[in-house]
């Protein structure tokens, strides 16, 4: 590695122009942060090394990651300087995995950590607590996490930092979002796709993102791809992504400080010029934003050689460079030499407080990276101006007589929300190229689709200032929205149901973030992450098996019950009611599954509101109980297509077996099926038993995989009598009704289930059962001859 740092991107010397005193102050801050980062990994006491290091000063379990920490500390130190010099409103997204020691060190030094956690005071006692709590039972994680002041990004799983950074910058025109990208993280698919986010960033209405690609050369045990690319090839790659690289390379601290200061000043001057030009003169073409490429050794300033093997600048510096400190006297001596090399007596006074000179370049108040309110977005959050639903509700004079496309009806509501937030710009809709396909094109009457590149005459709705975000990357859509929400705004993610699985892992991390945040009083609630899953399994008959997967609900319902909610509104008005609810909520992940195809209207708006508030209830108009006490059988449905089949089955039973007392139950909120002890929305046993009975057969038609309903309700008294029909991987390109027939969810099969499972009914209803079987046989012959569903199905409506 070259000793002399270099910068590229403009002619001239890499000298920052800072005087020696300022460079020494920056170096002191950096050394202090390195000392604190290493101390968190190793020390449980003796934080200022006021006595020779002994094994009992060392933690019994050494956990943490040193390798990335010196580079992160360098970035933190130098961001402090430019924030203070330029009075910047800035946050930083820390991408490298397990960089917690560095970010915690920075926030402890700037005082924001002690303000939030007074017991971790900015003195020797607080330093000891800072060290002890790190990766310690009852303490804080080894990575950047909700407990970390100034963070909006969970640092455990890699790949999402740049998407989060762009999400934070959207509609924040005064905000700078620095984003440190580890070279290991840069190898992930989501991060590779995130480089295209600059094609959607509006320099007029949005803030700026400054990527800092940190090349320290290694992952856990292998070299990184980008660090091994020849510099011309790396530059070509970054320029191809639309960035102008500025390089900082070196391992001699003072020289690297000068180069880093110069690089940041150059990058920020470019950003200011690009924004000023766009805001004053308009845009002629998409801006080419700067990117800093920082190349420093992994584990820089740590042990160079351990047990005869090189460590600094190699993969061995990734985690704990000296693993045997308590048992190996030589390791203990090396650790003491390492820690004392930072000269802590120059950095902290006798009481452990940072000396004034190392804080000379640190900003104050909300300008500190650990205290910026954008990194605690609930402080900035305003409620959405939601309109009255009466304006958008569809009239329902009687159930099952008219049809509407639920998501198109919802599109009118979202259009109004988008229009009413036009001045404040704090609401966005994201999705992978499917807004119009999902019948939400009403949004385009209020805003366009964000786009900063060329526009052709054949294009529609593209706009530099648009607030609908479409890119064919579910990862990027999710990352944008998470960053947007965590910095105090609102949004909705619209996606085909089958392909939202692409972000399974991302939603895991967001749910974990919300779960932890809820337990932190200083973290203010943020707007919920709202999914609208449509183009769903039952109406992907044209696209076929590859587009048929309703399992995202199963995945989400495995997660923290205090965070997750799942709704299956059966028609347009219930979808409006659910949407109105979720857009008001905080700190949840709400999953709404609704169809975009014409669907029967079952409930008027008042009925829909009451039904959604209950989450589950009887539809007396569809059943035949007639006040006779407990029913003979319960027909239950959850989801729009299953609901239609349940109501149709109830109609057949009403016509052919009128003496059978049928109760029809519809479930909107799937978590209502859980026991009250397991989920806040769960029903207590007495309520569940009153709705579903304790011992009558329950035929449940469910939108997704049937095993989920069994899992949610297995503790209930009625579970031995519960029979669930749902999707069982019988998919293909076929007619809509054939999809339900193939999966045994159709009305005829449900009637057969009622006959088979209701005591005493099979013998006296054998003729009805045979007619149901014949209808299924007739269906198979009909679709093969005509390619469409039978008229008795295609033209069906509720006449009960």
UniProtKB/TrEMBL annotation:
Q: What is its EC number?
A: 4.1.2.-
Keyword Protease annotated:
no
Where in this protein does the record put region Disordered?
1-20
UniProt keyword annotations, A-Z: Lyase, Thiamine pyrophosphate
Family assignment from sequence similarity: Belongs to the XFP family.
Every Xylulose 5-phosphate/Fructose 6-phosphate phosphoketolase N-terminal domain range: 20-379
Which PROSITE patterns does the entry link to? PHOSPHOKETOLASE_1, PHOSPHOKETOLASE_2
Broad EC category: lyase
NCBIfam families for this protein: PRK05261.1-2, PRK05261.1-4, PRK05261.1-6
Q: Mind telling me which CDD domains this protein's record contains?
A: TPP_PK (cd02011)
What is this protein's record name?
Probable phosphoketolase
Biological source species:
Streptomyces mordarskii
Composition bias, kind Low complexity: at what positions?
A: 1-17
Domain Xylulose 5-phosphate/Fructose 6-phosphate phosphoketolase C-terminal, chain residue ranges per copy: 596-798
Q: Does the keyword Lyase apply?
A: yes
Cofactors needed by this protein, per the record, are: thiamine diphosphate
């Amino acid at each position: 590695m070259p000793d002399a740092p270099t910068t590229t991107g403009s002619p001239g010397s890499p000298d920052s122009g800072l005087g020696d005193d300022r460079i020494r102050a920056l170096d002191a801050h950096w050394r202090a942060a390195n000392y604190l980062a290493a101390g968190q990994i190793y020390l449980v006491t003796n934080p200022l090394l006021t006595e020779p290091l002994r094994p009992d000063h060392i933690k019994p379990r050494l956990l943490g990651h040193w390798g990335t920490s010196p580079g992160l500390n360098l970035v933190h130190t130098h961001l402090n300087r430019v924030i203070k010099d330029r009075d910047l409103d800035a946050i930083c997204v820390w991408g490298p995995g397990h960089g917690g020691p560095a970010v915690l060190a920075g926030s402890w030094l700037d005082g924001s950590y002690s303000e939030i956690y007074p017991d971790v005071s900015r003195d020797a006692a607080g330093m000891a607590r800072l060290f002890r709590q790190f990766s310690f039972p009852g303490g804080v994680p080894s990575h950047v996490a909700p407990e970390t002041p100034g963070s909006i990004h969970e640092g455990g799983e890699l790949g999402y930092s740049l998407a989060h950074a762009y999400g934070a910058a959207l509609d924040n025109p005064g905000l700078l979002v620095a984003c440190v990208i580890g070279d290991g993280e840069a190898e992930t698919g989501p991060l590779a796709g995130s480089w295209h986010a600059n094609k959607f960033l509006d320099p007029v209405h949005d803030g700026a993102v400054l990527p800092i690609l940190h090349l320290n050369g290694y992952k856990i045990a292998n070299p990184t791809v980008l660090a091994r690319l020849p510099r011309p090839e790396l530059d070509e790659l970054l320029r191809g992504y639309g960035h102008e690289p500025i390089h900082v390379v070196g391992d001699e601290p003072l020289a690297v400080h000068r180069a880093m200061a110069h690089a940041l000043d150059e990058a920020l001057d470019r950003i200011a010029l690009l924004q000023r030009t766009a805001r004053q003169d308009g845009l002629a073409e998409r801006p080419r934003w700067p990117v800093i490429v920082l190349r420093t050794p992994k584990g820089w300033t740590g042990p160079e050689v351990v047990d005869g093997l090189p460590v600094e600048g190699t993969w061995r510096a990734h985690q704990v460079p000296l693993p045997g400190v308590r048992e190996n006297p030589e390791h203990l001596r090396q650790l003491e030499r390492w820690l004392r090399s930072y000269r802590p007596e120059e950095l902290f006074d006798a009481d452990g407080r940072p000396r004034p000179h190392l804080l000379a370049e640190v900003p104050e108040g909300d300008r500190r990276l650990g205290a910026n309110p954008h990194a605690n977005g609930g402080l900035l959050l305003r409620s959405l101006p939601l309109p009255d639903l009466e304006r958008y509700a569809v009239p329902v004079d009687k159930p099952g007589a008219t049809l509407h496309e639920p998501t198109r009806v919802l599109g009118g509501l979202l259009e109004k929300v988008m229009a009413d937030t036009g001045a404040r710009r704090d609401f966005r809709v994201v999705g992978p190229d499917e807004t119009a396909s999902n019948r939400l094109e009403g949004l385009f009457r209020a805003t366009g689709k964000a786009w900063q590149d060329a526009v052709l005459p054949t294009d529609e709705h593209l706009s530099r200032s648009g607030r609908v975000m479409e890119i064919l990357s579910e990862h990027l859509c999710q990352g944008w929205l998470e960053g947007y929400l965590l910095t105090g705004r609102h949004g909705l993610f619209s996606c085909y149901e089958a392909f939202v699985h692409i972000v399974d892992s991302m939603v895991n991390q967001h749910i974990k973030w919300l779960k932890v945040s809820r337990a932190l009083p200083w973290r203010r609630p943020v707007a919920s992450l709202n999914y609208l899953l449509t183009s769903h399994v039952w109406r992907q008959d044209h696209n076929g098996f590859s587009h048929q997967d309703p399992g995202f609900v199963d995945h989400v319902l495995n997660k923290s019950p205090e965070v997750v909610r799942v709704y299956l509104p059966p028609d347009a008005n219930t979808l409006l009611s659910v949407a109105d609810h979720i857009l008001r909520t905080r700190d949840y992940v709400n999953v709404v599954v609704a169809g975009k195809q014409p669907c029967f209207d079952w409930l008027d708006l008042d009925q829909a509101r009451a039904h959604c508030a209950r989450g589950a209830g009887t539809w007396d108009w569809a059943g035949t109980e007639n006040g006779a006490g407990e029913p003979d059988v319960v027909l239950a449905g959850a989801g729009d297509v299953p609901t239609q089949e349940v109501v149709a089955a109830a109609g057949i039973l009403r016509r052919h077996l009128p003496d059978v007392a049928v109760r029809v139950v519809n479930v909107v909120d799937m978590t209502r099926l859980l026991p009250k002890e397991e989920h806040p929305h769960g029903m207590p046993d007495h309520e569940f038993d009153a709705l579903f009975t304790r011992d009558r057969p329950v035929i449940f038609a469910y939108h997704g995989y049937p095993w989920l309903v069994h899992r949610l309700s297995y503790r209930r008294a009625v579970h031995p009598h519960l029979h669930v029909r749902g999707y069982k991987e019988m998919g293909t390109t076929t007619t809509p009704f054939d999809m339900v027939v193939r999966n045994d969810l159709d009305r005829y099969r449900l009637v057969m289930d009622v006959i088979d499972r209701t005591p005493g009914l099979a013998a006296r209803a054998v003729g009805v059962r045979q007619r149901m079987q014949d209808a299924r046989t007739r269906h198979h012959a009909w679709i093969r001859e005509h390619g469409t569903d039978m008229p008795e199905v295609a033209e069906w409506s509720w006449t009960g």
